[in-house]
Amino acid sequence: MRTVKPLLCVSKHLAPLRWLSKPRNCSNAARASSGEKKTGVSDSFRRQVASGPRFQDFIKSPPVTLAVNCEHTDEHYLSEDLGLLGDARKVYFETYGCQMNVNDTEIAWSILQKKGYQRTADLKQADVVLLVTCSIREKAEQTIWNRLQQLTAMKKKRLKTNSPVKIGILGCMAERLKTELLEREKLVDVLAGPDAYRDLPRLLAAATAGGQQASNVLLSLEETYADIMPVQHASQGRSAFVSIMRGCDNMCSYCIVPFTRGRERSRPVSSILEEVRMLSEQGVKEVTLLGQNVNSYRDTSEVQFCGSERTKLSRGFSTIYRAKQGGLRFSDLLDLVSRIDPDMRIRFTSPHPKDFPDEVLQLIAERQNVCKQIHLPAQSGSNQVLKAMRRGYTREAYLDLVDNIKQIIPDVSLSSDFISGFCGETDDDHQQTLSLIREVGFNVGFLFAYSMRKKTHAFHRLQDDVAPQVKQRRLEECISVFREEAERVNAAVVGSTQLVLVEGESKRSAEDLCGRTDGNMKVIFPKEDVAVQASASNTAPIRGGGYVLVKILSAGSQSLRGRALSHSSLISTPTPSCDGYK
User: Fold this and answer.
1) Are strands 90-95 and 128-133 parallel, antiparallel or unpaired?
2) What is the DSSP letter of 321?
3) Which architecture does CATH list for 372-492?
4) Does residue 502 contact residue 515 with C-beta atoms inside 8 Å?
5) Rounded distance, CA 257 to CA 140, Å?
6) Residues 86-216, CATH architecture
7) pLDDT tens digit string along 313-339?
8) What pTM, to 2 d.p., does this model score?
9) Fold exhibited by the domain 239-365
10) Phi and psi at residue 289, in whole multiples of 5°?
11) Closest-CA residue to 489 (of 406, 380, 569)
């Protein structure tokens, strides 16, 4: 059956999207033959309607998306070729928020690059400025609003010099605030939601050719960009992010992600493995697998391959949605990815505590190149708050999981997320969160004051009843305790030798280098030549993208300091690949 996508209106008045319905034959001849009685409509108007576009004009090649100017003049309709040409226009990206947005930037750039656009790191040279945005907190959105004011001022100056620039908003903020972005002082030319990056060339063409605003923020149940290889823009290609899934089904009461990125869907395993192999061939030494709920990955397109038939949650965990059946699970994918290059580190983020079966933990413990570092978002230490957040676990279940992780992976490093001042949080709830932080002992933390977001369950059902000053005080207390515990945990590695992946020069001193341990802790050490191997007498300089053994001499809450001993590499025992994915 032929599928017809909705029309995309780019008029100044931004008429709403409408689905195509049954065509009407508006010709005078048709009306006359049917014996229809004429009304007060003039013949002139009837001739205009008869000469306008008909149903067939919109379905040249199914499926099709047309950018339409609502003034109904033929010259404002975009041809199929117009949206394919970048004409060497220069694009400048600014990326805000999480690692998923970094990956989205690489996807968007891959699409535009193939259409003839060029990328520039100089804002003054840009013909197109695209902001990849975040909506997770109010502060993140306010940063974008402030930036738009600055860019609009630049845009007005450029118009005076006859060098116009187009401004586009991509990502979560485009999805959540489309109306405000398009109408508020006319700041934006192009909007593209997280599932609409394929449409960027056409949207930019519409904005450039017609001088109109263009928008596509439709969410998809299928889009994973599996066939698009992101153009990696990491510094010297030492590390890269690989998206394995998009969207989220958890529906935590505070979270906007399901409403800005849509339902959860996993990328096919073959596409992921192809990208990781490509990165390995390019010399990338660390890959981070990305997803909003990365460890709930399940590729049901491969139901006969290595997959278990049923998802089993850890004891004490629950979900509000139906568990997926069949297919390739996260443990299977992690196994396959880790086999591609024994000298490439594998990380993953962001997981949910409910999706840590023993198979995943045992694989992390056994596989040399899968980092012994787990991000375990807690959000709160209070059962009352966790229930209001709809997290699907209790404090006791979370601590049981931590004990199990530490038993299977004794040298594991743990990081977490916490929200201070959620709806209904009391001082006692806050104290329980502080005690959880002390009891677990995290290396790294991401802590924020609660920010109410529209569309979420909390917005509709709960009261944001914790005063801002109380939220801030509790946040500061959480940060203080977190740093105390992190410093204590990090002090335990002083005197040990850690394998460090070198990132480059330290930001604070050109005389020092920095890198990260397997546990994702930053290490600072002097820039000097070291032994090629531990037992070798000849030396060589340390360069970014290489591994070195570093003796840890001191520790703080956020970084370690040491001295490099020798060059090194990861060591792993080869294991056979599953059939069909060699």
Assistant:
1) parallel
2) S
3) 2-Layer Sandwich (3.30)
4) yes
5) 14
6) 3-Layer(aba) Sandwich (3.40)
7) 666 787 776 666 668 999 999 999 999
8) 0.79
9) Transcription Regulator spoIIAA (3.30.750)
10) -80, 130
11) 406
